[in-house]
From TrEMBL:
It comes from Stentor coeruleus. Gene3D superfamilies: Hormone Receptor, Insulin-like Growth Factor Receptor 1, Chain A, domain 2. This is EGF-like domain-containing protein. SMART domains: EGF, FU. Residues 13-54, 56-85, 87-117, 118-147, 149-177, 178-211, 234-262, 264-293, 294-323, 325-354, 355-383, 385-413, 414-443, 445-474, 475-504, 506-535, 536-570, 572-601, 602-632, 634-663, 664-692, 694-723, 724-753, 755-783, 784-814, 816-846, 847-876, 907-937, 939-968, 969-999, 1001-1029, 1030-1059 form the EGF-like domain.
Length: 1059
């Protein structure tokens, strides 16, 4: 190919006529342009720039890169976007001089001295320290002053009425209510739109964790995934960021094309398939096996290395290949020998191209006009260039060096430090400023910081930043370059401003306060102070911080219109908007606003929901809707309903109406009348028109409804609540430490062991199954039979009566009639006698004569007994001895104390009154009782259950113990004892103490107990003596076992019963 591009002046090689790649000798490359190279240590005076100092900088500019782009400013000016602006005083936005401000930064005002003073607290803009015109967030304007108004969760409010809530809260009327758990942005307590980090919105609530590949919420996925129906779905292959319809960013090695990632083509390839295989190459190349291969020499278009379809200039087609048409060095020719244009490095002579001299790229027949890189043009000839520090060079060989250098092996080497002329690095002939020549070497002549001196001890001029004091150099003040003393500066360093003979640091851009131009102490909003400099916070961030353990910046506060999410600022919905689309267009407003042209406008005063500012559908608390669909002021504080004038007619819970105002009820009262409380708050109960704390279950006394201070019997306090003692324990400090047992239990090693209850004859594991004689089983306790009954199954059903009583058909014991009386009245007076007796005039049954069965007097018999015959009005015996009744075959009934034995009467055993044999007695004589073996033993003394004689007892009844053959009473309240001081079973209401005595206890159904005396039972029980007994069925409270005072739910109280 021929080179037709002409490079710009002083350019040795270029990619276009305007973009240079390398420069000729004596020029240097700068942004694609060749500039004249300054000599060593060349600099321009202030206000000028350029290699030849020809560029005039703009006004107040000390140095510049062009006439319109300033690099450093003169004293009193500061650099801003390449322009020097008058440097205003602190917090001044614009000024006419360094001391006269015309406008201040936000939050400041112009004071009487022309400077800027800060506005009062909470004020965003002001005209003076007492007149505020706009307030900061959380304040409202009142009489030109800002008053803190937004409290709690409110972010923005006006005159104490909240209009916008903080993150995690939503506006309900004029109040901010908390969003649901883990919700960051919500429209109500049940509808969440954005969750906290680690949570995702599922069915308007925040799920515990994000779904797979979810980043911080189900609206933000990790790289390579996009949100689809609340979950993260895969992007297409080789895509790292996408929407549901197109890829946005491709993986390395792939390029985006029509929303799809295609593999980046190889070198010289114009188009390739998804696999990266080339299908179309640049001119001069053809596609082979997915890569681009060069065509043959001179060919610009081919289908293979041997099949050329188009030849380059200077070549002609020959079959399927290209052959040179012009001679060497020729660019354009006619025929193979007549050249009209030569290639670079050649010149035309008689239609032929002749090569330029070495190092020349453009020449004529007589001279070179442009040299190649590494050569310099001199009098039409290209000579090899020497290094930059060479002053005189001949064909690449240096003969003379710049000051500060010497020739060594045709090259320039630097002289030693401080030396300006030398013949070698050890032989100096002249020294620079601040040095003196000594033994062919340069040594520092002046003292430290001294620029000019007559000797090492006497300085006459100091370096910049120092002044002469006592023949030595002392430092000027901070930021000062020229001064007459440490406190009087005349010229400041760049970055400082002269003010009252001292230099004040010009802070760097975005730095509010600094100690020097490079040491910032406070940055502007949106920047972070890091290593004394202001670093820009990311995105829409106003304040940020460095993430621990990395260099990443995390946002902590966002600009208005953005929300903080996981350290980044995301675009928020417009003001008062509840929901909006991805473009930020509002779709729904918060309560108190309506949507109009994608903007939320306020409803009318007092309105929570409306369709326009004149049509309200729901009014706020304290307002009511009127006939014109507006909201009128409704009720005062704590008023539930009121008239059109705002006068209250009904108060809210916990308040009572008085003269149109709602006054608070007494403490813990939710409903009250003018004089007393009628309904208490939960956890409190009504007692004498006052609300007293209602203790938790099993608690006797408490400080509040949830904190017990003293538990009832059978319970102990644990973390303010009553926990049950172990089984059978009445008083304990923990489940393993009992000090007093209930009845039926014995205390042993701080534990209660079940024993038989009082009057129990047989029990298993403390449960009674059979009572002693005279008692019956009632539940698990033994109750005493009626007084006249010796054996019973209940309090009303007797099986065996005591002597002197008989068992009636009703199951009760009636008093015995007199001897031989068959029937008698309630007073015991006999009305009819048994057979063999007659009723005398004194109502006493008198025996008939011997052998007479029926008689009307002792001498008048009408019927004789069996074994007797009626002879001469008298009954004459015909039976054997001791036979009461007999027949012709023998005795059929014997007299008492005898039994029939072979038709005759034999005597019963000792002390037996009635028997069936000599060893089977059925009734004993007086003073004796029937034993289990069918014999008669002596009758035991009082309270004795078994005895060997009437005076020697071996087993006593409950409440007594055997002592020397007699029964003695147990200690007070003891049911079973082994001695007068050792009780094993106590009576109901008492428990065995560690001393062996019985101490009064309350049952577990008692809720108010003092020293063992119960004064109040649990609900469903009534107090009988010192025992809590269960109320009748379906009764929640009662005064006795038959009188109910309150019923369970679904039952009604009628005449003391629940039906």
């Amino acid at each position: 190919m021929f080179c037709s591009i002409k490079c710009s002046s002083n350019c040795a090689s270029c990619s276009s006529s305007s973009v240079c790649l390398t420069c000729t000798i004596g020029y240097t490359l700068s942004n694609g342009v060749c500039l004249l190279q300054c000599s060593r240590n060349c600099s321009c005076t202030d206000g000028h720039s350029g290699d030849d100092c020809s560029i005039k900088c703009s006004s107040n500019c000390a140095s510049c890169s062009s006439s319109s782009v300033c690099l450093t400013c003169t004293i009193g000016y500061t650099l801003s976007n390449g322009v020097c602006l008058l440097q205003c005083s602190s917090n001044c936005k614009t000024c006419t001089s360094s001391t006269l401000c015309t406008s201040c930064n936000s939050g400041f005002y112009i004071n009487s001295s022309g400077g800027c003073s800060i506005c009062s607290s909470g004020c965003a803009t002001c005209s003076s320290d007492t007149i505020c015109t706009a307030c900061s967030t959380g304040y409202f304007l009142s009489n030109s002053a800002c008053i803190a108004s937004c409290s709690g969760a409110c972010l923005t409010c006006t005159s104490n009425i909240c209009s916008k809530c903080k993150y995690g809260y939503h506006l309900s009327g004029v109040n901010c209510l908390a969003c649901s758990s883990n919700c960051a942005v919500c429209s109500s307590s049940t509808v969440c739109s954005t969750c906290n980090s680690g949570y995702a919105v599922v069915n308007n609530a925040c799920s515990t964790t994000c779904s797979l590949n979810c980043k911080t919420s189900c609206t933000d996925c990790v790289s390579g995934f996009y949100v689809s129906s609340g979950i993260c779905a895969n992007c297409t292959s080789n895509c790292v960021s996408c929407t549901s319809s197109a890829c946005l960013v491709c993986s390395p090695g792939y390029a985006l094309k029509n929303g799809v990632c295609a593999k980046i083509c190889s070198v010289n390839c114009i188009a390739c398939d998804a696999a990266g295989l080339c299908i179309n190459c640049v001119p001069g190349y053809f596609a082979l096996s997915g890569a681009c291969t060069s065509c043959s020499t001179g060919c610009v278009a081919c289908t293979s290395s041997t099949a050329c379809t188009s030849c380059a200039p200077g070549y002609i087609a020959s079959g399927s290949s290209c052959t040179a048409s012009c001679s060497a060095g020729c660019k354009t020719c006619t025929g193979s020998t007549a050249c009209s244009v030569c290639l670079s490095g050649f010149y035309l002579v008689s239609s032929a191209c002749v090569a330029c001299t070495d190092g020349c790229s453009v020449c004529t027949t007589t001279a070179c006009t442009t040299c190649k890189s590494g050569y310099i043009l001199s009098n039409g000839v290209c000579a090899k260039a020497c290094q930059n520090t060479c002053k005189t060079c001949t064909n690449g060989v240096c003969s003379n060096c710049d000051p500060g250098y010497f020739i060594s092996s045709d090259k320039c080497e630097a002289c030693s430090s401080g030396c300006t002329d030398c013949t070698s690095n050890t032989a100096c002939t002249r020294c620079g400023s601040g040095y003196i020549l000594s033994n062919s070497a340069c040594i520092v002549a002046c003292s430290q910081n001294c620029k000019t001196c007559s000797s090492a001890e006497i300085c006459s001029a100091c370096l910049s930043g120092y002044f002469v004091s006592n023949n030595a150099c002392s430092a000027c003040g901070s930021g000062c370059s020229t001064c007459t003393s440490s406190s009087v500066c005349t010229v400041c360093n760049v970055g400082y401003t002269l003010s009252a003979s001292s230099c004040k640091a010009d802070c760097s851009p975005y730095c509010l306060t600094c100690t020097s131009p490079t040491v910032c102490t406070k940055c502007a909003s949106g920047y972070l102070l890091s290593s004394n400099a202001c670093v820009a916070c990311p995105g829409a961030c106003t304040t940020c911080a460095t993430v621990s353990g990395s260099a990443t910046l995390s946002c902590t506060l966002c600009k208005s219109g953005y929300l903080l999410s996981s350290g980044s600022c995301i675009k928020a919905c417009p003001a008062y908007c509840n929901t909006c689309d991805a473009a930020g267009t509002c779709q729904g407003c918060i309560p108190g606003y309506f949507l109009s042209s994608n903007t939320c406008s306020a409803c009318g005063t007092g309105c929570t929901e409306c369709t326009s500012n004149t049509v309200c559908t729901i009014c706020s608390n304290g307002y009511k809707i009127n006939a014109n669909k507006g909201c009128d002021i409704a009720c005062p504080a704590n008023c539930q309903t009121c008239g059109s004038t705002g006068t209250c007619t009904a108060c809210g819970s916990g308040y009572i109406l008085s003269n149109g105002k709602c006054n608070a009820c007494a403490a813990n009262c939710s409903v009250c009348s003018s004089s007393a409380c009628t309904t208490c708050d939960p956890g409190y109960k009504l007692v004498s028109s006052a609300c007293v704390v209602q203790c938790p279950a099993y608690c006797r006394t408490c400080s509040d409804p949830l904190t017990c201070t003293l538990c009832g019997p059978g319970y102990f306090i644990s973390s303010g609540a009553c926990q049950a003692c172990s089984t059978g324990c009445n008083t304990c400090t923990s489940q393993t430490s009992c000090s007093l047992c209930n009845g039926g239990y014995l205390l042993s090693a701080e534990a209660c062991t079940p024993i038989c209850t009082a009057n129990c004859g047989t029990c298993t594991s403390g449960t009674c199954s059979e009572c002693i004689p005279g008692y019956f089983l009632s539940g698990v306790l033994c109750a005493k039979c009626p007084t006249s009954c010796s054996k019973c199954t209940s309090a009303t059903v007797c099986e065996v009566c005591n002597p002197g009583y008989y068992l009636a058909s009703t199951g009760t014991c009636a008093i015995n009639c007199p001897a031989n009386c068959k029937t008698c009245g309630t007073t015991g007076t006999c009305t009819a006698c048994y057979s063999g007796y007659f009723l005398s005039s004194s109502s006493i049954c008198t025996a008939c004569s011997t052998g007479c069965t029926v008689c009307s007097s002792a001498t008048v018999c009408s019927t004789c007994d069996a074994g007797f015959a009626f002879i001469n009005n008298a009954c004459v015996s015909t039976c054997p001895v001791n036979c009461n009744t007999c027949t012709s075959s023998g005795c059929s009934k014997c007299n008492p104390g005898y039994y029939i034995n072979s038709n005759a009467c034999s005597q019963c055993g000792t002390n037996c009154a009635i028997c069936t044999s000599s060893t089977a007695c059925t009734a004993c004589s007086k003073g004796y009782a029937l034993t289990s073996s069918g014999t008669c033993g002596p009758v035991c003394s009082s309270n004795c259950l078994t005895c060997t004689s009437s005076t020697v007892c071996t087993l006593c009844a409950n409440g007594y113990y055997v002592s020397s053959g007699t029964c003695k009473a147990c200690p007070s309240n003891c049911a079973v004892c082994t001695s007068s001081s050792t009780c094993t079973v106590c009576n109901p209401g008492y428990g065995v103490a560690s001393t062996g005595t019985c101490s009064a206890i309350c049952s577990t159904t008692c809720i108010s107990c003092s020293t063992g005396t119960c004064s109040k039972c649990l609900s469903g029980y009534f107090l009988d003596g010192n025992i809590c007994k269960v109320c009748p069925k379906n009764c929640s409270s009662c005064s006795s076992s038959t009188v109910c005072t309150a019923c369970n739910s679904n039952y009604a109280l009628i005449s003391g019963s629940c039906v």
